[in-house]
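An example makes the point: we let one protein speak, the chain in one-letter code, the fold tokenised, and here it is:
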Amino acid sequence: MSRYGHKGSQRKKRGRGGPKETPRSAPSGDHPVLQPGAVDPGEARRQGGETSGAPGRPEHGAPAEDGSVDARPRTPLSPGAAHGEERPLQAPATLTRPYRLSIASTPHEALEFAAWIRAQAGLGRLGLALRSPYLGLADENEGWEAVAEGGSLAAQVVRSNLVEVLRSNEAPELVLHDSSQIVQIAALLEVPLAELLRLVVGDVSLLKGSIGRSGSVLPSWASAADEAYDAIVSDQHWSRTAPAFYHQVAIPQMRQKFLAEGLAVPVGTPWHIIYEDLFLRVVAHYTREPNLVEAFAYNQDPAATVAGLLDLDDTEQAYSAVIWAATNFDSVLLERHPEIAQILTREPLSELQRLCQSKFAVFVLHAGYAEEDYRRERGARALYGRHIPWNLSLAEMLFRRYTMSVQEILDVATVSFSYADEPFTVGPVEGSPFDRMLRVRGVVDGSREEWQGEIERRAGLANPLSIPLAPKVIWGE
């Protein structure tokens, strides 16, 4: 019993109290970061205090002996409670942080933050997030929310010490909560973007996309420190089992994207790569539909082949018909993509569906097998292992698998040109994954005779399909 008569520990023993304390270094379950729920009586002891109550949204309180700030509101007491006559009024259930939170908003607190960040040099990784005006940094045990904007003395102390650590030879690696914040963070710290990006080894938004975990357990009022803690713990739990695509393609491509935005127009010999019918090549790879496989094997136009089989006059309608059949004849799905839904203008669709089912019976069989696998595995994967989440419709799952696989092939090709010591500069992909023609533009510091073969090799780098990619390299604008 606490000095205020709080029987939280007794209730916990009887199983009616708050959630079990989550270990700091290895939170368990699908949501390893923050668990909303009742007050954890052990939180006060971990924070070094006796106060009964719940940790809420951080307030600027007085620093404790170790420099941290106890931001928890004290539970209001009814009359006579100080003498043990009555129990304290119950605080509402709120967020329980499984890490120690400190705030640096005054010069004294900023000096405590400076000591902490200097101690992180050479120790490993830190989570990093920004919620203006606060910068959040965290390891698996402790998080800091430091004011970094403006000209106050505290902000200057925070920025100068953080920049000094990040520019040292023992700078910690950084895991971002959201890579879209990196430009603003670099400007805030007055550090060159390239210098900051070299420390980035993870991005939780990309990581969750790779493993199929959309959303977050963080509440809408989460602080910058909460997001930084989410980043570091999510990286510890999931990055080791993430597909190689995340480490070898997604992260390098993220760096390349931000670096390219700040570069001047490259000088050199222009070239571009054209991929034709990449979406249908992916469909043929997964379904092994014989008409498409044969068309690609003999370098024929697959849309013209389909138009002949379905007695259609227009190849664009034939292309839409193939996508419609490959996504289990889901007209609602195609209506969300009017650029590929020309076939929906043809009436009646029931007769066209019957004809497609007779000419492309393999699509129907593949959809059935794919649905069984999807239900059994409670998920699916794209070409390079990125996870497709559970509880989608069959048509949406198939469509995502095809489009994600197309995007992965393009990402692998573009990242292969992004090594810093090579003479290539490559731009973004022009077109959507289901366009019949996709283009990647680039510039090389050299001649066509010198680099033609190398560009062709990288354009079809380690083709993962059972269907030829057949990229075309064209020189000039």
In short: Confidence is low (pLDDT under 50) at residues 1-94. Residues 267-477 form one domain. Residues 122 and 170 are 5 Å apart (CA to CA).
